[in-house]
């Protein structure tokens, strides 16, 4: 299973009922604001899985924090485990 969410890098969390929760982007991206992408893969089976993951930042965005526009990872996932990958980017123009 795979999920991908976006967040504003300098405003990532909010407090809800006394707990810190993710503050994911639900609207449009804003020019000049640095965003992060969180990719979470889960292995819900009883067998180890070897995954080849490929991720790209959105079209028109530039990578930050030493990231790449397109990157790949080999991820061994043990049974019933998860793995998280994060990238960062911004849009220089609308």
Instruction: Name the overall outline.
Output: flat
Report the helical percentage.
Answer: under 10%
Query: How many helices?
Result: 0
Structural class assignment: mainly beta
Q: What is the number of beta strands?
A: 8
| Share in β-strands | over 45%
Largest sheet properties: 4 strands, antiparallel
Instruction: Give the mean pLDDT.
Output: 94
Uncertain runs: none
Q: How widely separated are the two ends?
A: 32 Å
Elements, N to C (H/E): EEEEEEEE
**Which strand order spans the largest sheet, edge to edge or round the barrel?**
1-4-8-6
Radius of gyration: 15 Å
How are the SSEs placed, and which strands pair?
Layout: E1 2-8, E2 13-16, E3 19-22, E4 34-43, E5 49-56, E6 62-63, E7 70-77, E8 81-90
Antiparallel strand pairs: 1-4, 2-3, 4-8, 5-7, 6-8
Structural notes for this entry:
With 94 residues, the chain is mostly beta strands. The protein is built from no helices and 8 strands. The N and C termini lie far apart (32 Å).
Concise overview:
This protein has 94 residues and is mainly beta. Helices cover 0% and strands 56% of the residues.
Please name the defining characteristics of this protein.
94 residues, 8 strands, 0% helix, two-stranded antiparallel sheet, four-stranded antiparallel beta sheet, mainly beta, flat
